[in-house]
Design goal:
Layout (H helix, E strand, L loop, with lengths): L2 E7 L4 H19 L7 E7 L5 E2 L2 E2 H4 L6
Parallel strand pairs: 1-2
Antiparallel strand pairs: 3-4
């Protein structure tokens, strides 16, 4: 029973989440021969204030908040 945990910044659409779930499930089936019925995918949304890259939060990088 594989469990895939995907962390993304808030703002991902429902449609894109559906694609992530389907894609991760297909990948485990293709690479590890795991049946889709036993593959669990968890998508965790992180607030952009709590997600950073290059020394600054995504809120700052996206212009949602000033430095």
């Amino acid at each position: 029973m594989p469990i895939v945990n995907i962390k993304v910044a808030k703002g991902v659409t429902t449609e894109d989440k559906d694609k992530l779930i389907a894609g991760a499930t297909e990948l485990l089936e293709r690479v590890l021969n795991k049946p889709p019925s036993s593959t669990y995918v968890v998508i965790e949304e992180i607030d952009t204030d709590n997600f950073g890259v290059g020394g600054e939060s995504l809120s700052v990088r996206r212009g949602l908040r000033e430095r």
